[in-house]
Write a structure and sequence with these properties.
325 residues, Pyrimidine Nucleoside Phosphorylase, Chain A, domain 2, five-stranded mixed β-sheet, 15 helices, magnesium, glycosyltransferase, magnesium ion binding, EC 2.4.2.18, Glycosyl_Trfase_fam3
Length: 325
């Protein structure tokens, strides 16, 4: 086994790339990987290190081709909120607005139901979804990229990450290692103080546009309950509230989720026209995604378009077609 470098000080791009290559190829001992990832997490990863890890993941992932303008909406997870699946619903609504969405996701790690769990409860065959992802993205404008299927190199790291017991750099790299190689993305990070670092990584990775968001609760999405921080590539941080977008506030408890069946039922009610906190949270985050996609210029226009996709039944029809594909 090869010895990993000392990670107590920031790594250069070349050293970081070599280290992550060794880790992903199984050429380092488990104890060394655990120590390396723990030290990185404790001192906090740099933009250069995150970008290097993403590049090495991309070299080893099972990629798909995507239409021009494809985006993704996802978060790093780990906010501990156990909320309903916001980004999953946003993906469906945004795709119903004729913006192709390659939704990257996994089963729950720190919550009761991740994107994969909820979509499975709605009727999506996860194995088939991976096999048909490129086709559904081309035909319907949406697909689900199950991380376990598209990043086989991460499989051997699961026990090590579990033993560490807290988030590692591989939680941060997940959104940016989208197998469709999207260049535009809405990414939730449950740490407002880390948005600029993450934005720096995306800039190094050559993104066309990205919006990094964090709710103060903390949440890895825009908050419908309070204030959120936003960093867009090339811009300084701004702070917004639901009122900024013309939406009312809702208690964070109103977004509390449950298991996969519970969250799937809530998503179904949402697409059937249900109102309340879940709808408004989805509208707020969908508006952000539509801005990143370049189809709207402001919050109000984005919310209007997203609401229309729900109220006209477009999002519900898209979900049904996707589940039947």
């Amino acid at each position: 086994m090869t010895i990993l470098p000392d990670a107590s000080a920031p790594l250069t791009a070349d050293v970081a790339a070599e280290a992550f290559g060794l880790i992903l190829d199984g050429k380092a001992a488990a104890c060394d990987i655990q120590q390396f990832l723990t030290i990185l997490s404790n001192r906090e990863e740099t933009s250069i290190e995150i970008a290097a890890a993403v590049r090495e993941m991309r070299k080893r992932m099972i990629a798909i081709e995507a239409p021009a303008g494809t985006i993704d909406v996802c978060g790093t997870g780990g906010d501990g909120s156990h909320s309903l699946n916001i980004s999953t619903a946003v993906a469906i609504v945004v795709a119903a607005c004729d913006v192709p969405v390659a939704k990257h996701g996994n089963r729950a790690a720190s919550s009761k139901s991740g994107a994969a769990d909820t979509l499975e409860a709605l009727g999506l065959n996860l194995d088939r979804a991976s096999d048909t992802a490129q086709a559904t993205l081309a035909d319907l404008g949406i697909c689900f990229l199950f991380a376990q299927k598209h990043h086989p190199a991460l499989g051997a790291l699961a026990p090590i990450r579990k033993a560490i017991g807290k988030r590692t750099i591989f939680n941060l790299t997940g959104p940016a290692a989208n197998p469709a190689m999207v260049k535009r993305q809405l990414i939730g990070v449950a740490r407002p103080d880390f948005l600029s670092v993450y934005a720096g990584a995306l800039d190094l990775l050559g993104y066309d546009d990205a919006m990094l968001v964090a709710g103060d609760e903390p949440l890895d999405e825009l908050s419908i309950s309070g204030t959120s921080s936003i960093v867009r590539l090339g811009q300084t941080m701004v702070r917004i509230t639901p009122e900024t977008a013309g939406l009312p506030r809702h208690p964070v408890e109103d977004l509390k989720g449950g298991d996969a069946a519970y969250n799937a039922a809530a998503l179904t009610r949402l697409l059937d026209g249900g109102t309340g906190a879940y709808r408004d949270a989805v509208l707020l985050n969908a508006a952000a995604a539509l801005m990143v996609a370049g189809v709207v210029n402001d919050w109000h226009s984005g919310i209007e378009e997203a609401a229309e996709a729900i109220d006209k039944g477009l999002a519900k029809t898209l979900l049904r077609c996707w589940m039947e594909y």
